[in-house]
Amino acid sequence: MHCVQCGSPALEFAGPDNAYARCTKCLALHNKVRPGHVQLMDVRAPNGQVDPQFTAVYAQQLGFAPRKAQDQVIGLGGVNIIVPTARIERDIRSKISGIIWGWIVGGIILAIMAIVGLVVFFYARSQMKSIDSSAGMPAAGTGAPQVVSWDGKAPYSCGASQVVTIKGTTATLASGPAISALGACQLTLDGVNITAPDGIQAMGTAKVTVKGGSIKSTGTAISALGNAEVAVQGAKITGKTSTLGAGAKITGAK
Question: Do 149 and 246 belong to one domain?
């Protein structure tokens, strides 16, 4: 037996002796006229119109459980057109769900990009402020000159407006930078041999002069930031050099 309206073989039965049949796809109701044969029931609302809600209530009175139609049959000029409403509804929901999830994922990606952009912006801004602030420092070399002793066992740093000379030291360090010249320090390394991950770091308006000796570094041998200057005079430099800032300068490094 097949549904007279849509042709589906998926029928269910109810009532005394299974006298009534309903298509599980289009929900059309039938009378079982004889074994293996059904006849379409013309179910209409009191106003004479075909009403799916009225048909559903009538089907329950016949003994059928509530069910949602998978197909909708539309009659045009005596021809029944089957519209798979359940599949269309499912596809529409799937498309809408995909669009919504696309918006959500896209929004998350944009939020992450915005956060990363803000972090980079504020970091760069802080670095530029640090570099620009060096312009207000005193000129290098205004302090009293002094020769200091450095054993080379720990990193050395000078600052403010010190004028410092270190002579004949050999330093081998496991961490760096080995020498940090900050502020407006003026530092001279005379015959100093340094082996460290990072060699000399000069910042602010510091001026460093490297006379003879050597700097061996697996990372950055010499770096100058802000308006700092490093002058190499006859020293052997092994490793990278880098400058950051409009006034940063490294000369003589080979």
Answer: yes
